[in-house]
Fold this protein.
Amino acid sequence: MGIAIGLSLSFGIAHLTHAQSIRPEYVANIVYQRLPDIPKENQYIRNSTKEVDPDNTLISRLIRYNQDIQKRPVLYRFDWKLTLADYLGANEPVKEELYPGRNTLTVNPYKKDVEAIRSLNRRQRNDLVNVLASVYNPQQNLPNTPQPSPQSSPQPSPVTTPQKPNFSQPGDSQLLKP
């Protein structure tokens, strides 16, 4: 039993480590392919090169905020919803002084990113959560429906008419005695 628990824990940790090692820029590209209406907000200039960094996007910073600043898991829809709630001002406040890009870009993208997330409608936010969770945790989207065995053929269930409840009769309470 201890070995089985150890194996399941190590597999879970390996899955988590793999998910968290995926580069945010890679995931952001997938998000933008699946959801082209999400704003990129990638016009910021990198400090080191003095050129626009097209890979430093709203979604890559959202991912970094979720996993690096808030230390939330990337596998679960609930944690992504908490992160969006932060941006919407309904959960923990997003701190400008800790925001991703504050040290690497000439302008802190915090305010524009919060505005961009707040401009998304509910459907766009739900789609964003679903895509992020599915990229990091593809197993979550597998159908969990049992397959019928090939030998058995479905039998129609017999039609039954509901029976009326029996009303109590005098003396029925005696049946409750020990």
The helical segments are 2-21, 24-34, 58-69, 77-87, 110-119, 122-136. The chain has six helices and no strands.
